[in-house]
Each structure stands twice: as structure tokens, then as C-alpha cells.
Hints:
The chain is an all-alpha fold and 203 residues long. It has helices at 2-12, 15-35, 37-41, 53-69, 75-103, 107-126, 135-153, 168-202.
Amino acid sequence: xxxxxxxxxxxxxxxPFLIMLFFINLGGTIYGYIWYGWQMKIxxxxxxxxxxxxxxASLFFTIVLGLWIFGKRSRLFEALAFVTLIKYGLWxxxxxxxxxxxxxxIGWIGWMLIGSHFAMALQAILYIEHxxxxxxxxxxxxxxxxxxxxxDYVFGQMPIYxxxxxxxxxxxxxxxxxxxxxxxxxxxxxxxxxxxxxLVDQS
Length: 203
């Protein structure tokens, strides 16, 4: 079982696989920005960077994949990718399931969004042992993520789900604590990374 896990871990970093995953995430990122196009058109320029949440999360991971392909790393982008992939991946799954509960149907697009966003969070978990970020990078990612929540739910720039508009306060509360949970998880991963580095140095 351990040898199988090691093989899977090595295969995830196999360069042709990374290249394939890079283009999948790049395509999803572009599609995501197109998806948010109408909302960005009605958004004040100062808030534009904070509107397309999920595409920006996949953009962070696309950058990470691109760096890995060429044997490079960025602790900050790896921390941003880890936190936001899990947060916005799970967030969108929950929002679409709530829409299904509220309306009784979400169509094939809704199910596609559930599948693709779940895959975002899954990517972060699958690559958990390959991320290399420290506590400072996680702290900076936390600032970005929590600031984004403030922009979304204080300044009203959250993704628009018209059928869930009456629950915006509850969604904002849920989103804040989801962010906190993802940040705490990232700090735990950073702690594991540090412990691993110490063990490698001592061996």
C-alpha cells in the first residue's frame, strides 16, 4: 500500500502529467473569467481583481504548475493556490447544492460546476505533500483570502447566485469560517513541511 502511494505521488509530479494538468487548469481559468465577464462589466474597477474568485484560485495553481514544470517554486503562490483551491472549490460545491435544494434543479451546468470545483479542492489535497510553503506565505495568503471576503460581503462584490440572495448574510458567515478553516489547515501543512525539512537535514 505504501509503495503504491509513493508511485502515485511520483506520478503526480511526472512532467508530461504536469503539462497536461497545466493546460486543463489554464482552460478552466480562462473559462472561469469568461463566466464572470458579465459581473465584471458592472463592477467598479477598484474591485475587479476580487470578483472572479474561483478562476483566480485556479490561476494561482496554474502558475504553480508552470513553475514546477520548469523545476521552479514560489512559496507564496503555492500557499495561495492551496488555500484558495480548497476554499473556493468547496464553497462553489456548497452553493450549487444549496441552489439545488432551493430550486429543485440546477441543470447540467450546475452539475458541471459541482464537478469542476470539487476537482479544484481535490487537486490541493492530492498535491499536499508536494507543496512547499512556510508560515509567512500562509499568513500572506490569509490576508488575501480574508480581505477578499471583506470585499465580497461588506462591499457587495460576492458571486451572484440570485436564488440565494436572501441568504447572503448566512453565506457570508459560512464563507468567513470556511476561510479560517482553510488557513488553519494551511498552517498545519506548513508545520508538517517544516518538520519534514528538519528530518531531512538530520538524516
